[in-house]
Design brief:
Two copies of one chain form a homodimer.
Chain A: H1 2-22, E1 26-32, H2 38-48, E2 54-58, H3 73-77, E3 85-89, H4 92-101, H5 112-128, E4 132-139, H6 142-154, H7 159-167, H8 171-184, E5 190-194, H9 198-222, H10 249-273, E6 277-283, H11 289-297, E7 305-309, H12 315-318, H13 324-327, E8 336-340, H14 349-352, H15 358-376, E9 381-388, H16 391-403, H17 413-420, H18 422-436, E10 443-447, H19 451-471
Parallel strand pairs in A: 1-3, 1-4, 2-3, 4-5, 6-8, 6-9, 7-8, 9-10
């Protein structure tokens, strides 16, 4: 028997070297009541795997800091890179039960289904991206469990740990809730392991992992990667072809400072009410995103906002789910995060340039909607601006940049290359707005042929939406 | 005047594009009593800089979680990458004053000089690596300051912020302590700015930044990068040429389990006493580091330890100070962190292969000593193992790996290439041990010709050192 487990361990180790090679990220979840044997079982697995790409992630009760972020924030942050393995010692499921039972953020999560949907969406997003999630629920006979707890209590050096177990959620609550989850889950989603016989348990764990890794490897090899922007030949869209009334200088000067001061006041009000504000900017090159953002932030308190200007992903970012790098930077409660370009790159530049496969960018619309909902579910305000520009106006601005010494750094060959693909970008933008213009995170199209008018327009819109969220009736 | 400040801002922006290009990391510190104008001044600077590579980092009072890490941990974590700019809104100096005044971790920091030395070492380490640190202290006339505070209090939307100011360290304490720091600092280290006249203050800030950036750029261009391992031709060392008595199988089997159980008990005791344990493994290829680590961790509770197996740095890691990626992974209080290879790579592989310049690896000995002291200063146990192997024994193990199917993945061309440089590695190892064998973080040389003996030796040594730290008199 022992020999057999040794062979199984070697097989698990060999398979994980293969998943590493192929870049398949693995997440292995251990749930189970305290003293059920999940420590010993997960440690057994941990010892088998290569420490170079294995992480052990224990789920603790949410800290005060955790509570200032979105429910799944810490699981986003610690997502494994391609080829890496995370072992979760209790997971988002235990976390979920704790939120429910301790009525954490009760005002937001007054309905069971919100967090449950978040978990479902989280898992489906990462599974779609090739992540393999293996879930174990560990059980043990009551007799053995009590014996083990007693032993811990009697040893002065481990007594505190037994106490810690008891100060967490009551075992029977956890047990009851987990059994609800197990019952509702699709068949075969969870592997239940009885730890009463240790060797049998290890064997069962290893066999299950082997089966799952083999099928993940098989699936990975069969998946064809097709890059195809799939653009229609004669796309025409008027949606992005609007214009805005030109504002005169005097009105602009008197309005801009007033609006900025109001926004600063609202920043403080959002902070006090712990409402995060997420502003997303997309739009054509040279539409004036930077200048627009500058006017929005100009009077804000810098300790409470951040601008995230998105460039090409680093190699570390490329080895994660594409939403990972944005999830990591989502604001704390009461803070403002401004994205100068964003996760929408997936369905814009990545689609047009073929950096994402058709399958990837096609499913991204739904992923993005689910992603944004995770934050609005918890009270965040998400506002998205698309700054549009006439093609001739863009040419004029490009040339002006080239001719003005202190603006030359702003214009690169890439801008000219993008311009050649103008129509493709328009079509991709159009699809994006149509498919991600949700009630809870709407797009606001801002004609930016006149920069000053566009700035006033954006400021007014942000103020209106913040006031609604703070004091108005309109809530999603 | 306004025009002038606009030109200065443009110059600052242009210079930071140059430091970005050259890869010079910039850290700009703003200290000053509340309502002195540092918010407005730092925001003015922030608006000038490119959000793509600028981060604004406000220092808050230490949270419970912060206190579980080393004093400067959060500043290590947020170190800018090469070419990036961090603006610190209050910094490690305010943090230092708060630690002092609120008697945080008083048992450890009973002497003023410990934290002060940590700050000095931190700054000198990163300056040596080409980081430019620019420090401002903002002052304002008392009259203007009080007027500003009053205004904040009267506005219901900003009243809470005025209150927050007052709940922090008393202004006069902060003021008194900062003036001590300013007085003790070398001339020109801090730029003091009076904010009473806003435009003058902005001008003074911009001018100072321009001067400092210019000199940093100049210095960067003058610095020659020389890679030279500087090895003596006839190096011979007996230090690493020891052997260990072979243990018999029966003794090994009875001892190993007993020692592992004891170490597990000690893990719990360290946890309760909040003492972090840091184990560093270095040594020749095939010396059995992995197997040795496996025996150390075998019975430990996986929620309380981590193994950090060091591979080649990622591109993100390469753009930071070389100690950054290790600092980030240092353990919380009461946790165990095992490094399978470590920061010593700087003076081993990086020296031998020429990845670090002579200047870089030469100063690394002192940097490493200072780095380790930062953790032992706060009560961490740092133990370092060097596993040695006879050259013939290594050959035997390499060949065995090649001939055993399930071990083949362990042997690569790189191992053979390293072997060709055996003598250089020996000399580098020898220098390393001589120069970093400190009282507070000693090396333990472990002859590993016999793997089982080496495992017993390491376990015994760890147990002895933990017992000493927990209950013994020997403390550093």
């Amino acid at each position: 028997m022992t020999k057999n487990n040794e062979q199984l361990s070697l097989e698990v180790a060999a398979l994980t070297r293969e998943t590493k090679e192929l870049g398949i990220p693995i997440m292995i979840v251990f749930e189970g009541v305290p003293a059920s044997g999940k420590t010993r079982l997960s440690n057994e697995l941990l010892l088998t795997l290569d420490a170079k790409y294995t992480r052990f992630i224990p789920t603790k009760s949410p800290t005060e800091d955790d509570l200032r972020y979105q429910f799944l924030q810490k699981y986003w942050n610690s997502l494994p890179a391609r080829g890496d393995i995370n072992i979760y010692f209790r997971s988002w499921y235990a976390y979920f039960i704790e939120y429910q039972e301790n009525k954490i953020k009760n005002s937001i999560y007054n309905k069971y289904h919100v967090l449950k949907r978040q978990i479902q969406n989280f898992e489906s997003m990462i599974k779609d991206d090739g992540y393999e999630i293996i879930k174990f629920y560990i059980e043990i006979s009551d007799k053995k469990r009590k014996a083990h707890l007693k032993e811990m209590k009697e040893n002065p050096l481990t007594n505190w740990k037994a106490q810690e177990y008891e100060s967490a959620i009551a075992d029977d609550v956890y047990h009851k809730e987990m059994h609800k989850i197990l019952k509702d889950a699709p068949k075969d989603e969870w592997k239940i392991i009885d730890y009463t016989e240790k060797d049998e348990a290890i064997k069962s764990m290893n066999q299950h992992i082997i089966t799952r890794l083999k099928s993940a490897i098989q699936l990975h090899k069969e998946t064809k990667k097709v890059s195809d922007g799939n653009f229609s030949d004669n796309f025409k869209s008027e949606l992005l072809n609007q214009s805005i009334e030109k504002i005169n200088n005097k009105t602009y000067k008197s309005l801009i400072g007033e609006l900025q001061s109001r926004l600063k006041e609202l920043q403080f009000a959002l902070y006090e009410r712990k409402i995060p504000l997420i502003l997303v900017y997309e739009g054509m090159d040279a539409a004036g995103k930077g200048g627009n953002i500058k006017r929005v932030r100009e009077k804000l308190d810098p300790t409470g906002y951040e601008v995230n200007a998105i460039s090409a992903p680093t190699d570390v970012e490329l080895t994660h789910h594409y939403l990972w790098r944005f999830a990591k930077d989502m604001p704390r409660s009461g803070h403002v995060e401004i994205f100068d370009r964003s996760w929408y790159g997936r369905v814009l530049v990545e689609r047009v340039e073929g950096f994402a496969t058709k399958d990837e960018w096609s499913r991204a619309y739904q992923e993005i909607n689910q992603f944004e909902k995770m934050w609005t579910d918890e009270g965040a305000i998400v506002l998205k601006f698309f700054l549009t520009l006439d093609k001739d106006e863009q040419l004029k601005r490009f040339k002006e940049r080239e001719e003005t010494p202190e603006k030359q750094w702003k214009i690169t060959d890439e801008d000219w290359r993008n311009r050649e693909k103008w129509d493709l970008y328009i079509e991709a933008s159009h699809d994006m707005i149509e498919k991600t213009n949700t009630d809870y995170a709407p797009w606001h199209i801002v004609p930016a042929d006149n920069k000053k008018s566009a700035r006033i327009e954006v400021l007014k819109y942000i103020i209106k939406k913040c006031e609604e969220a703070l004091w108005g009736v309109k809530q999603y």
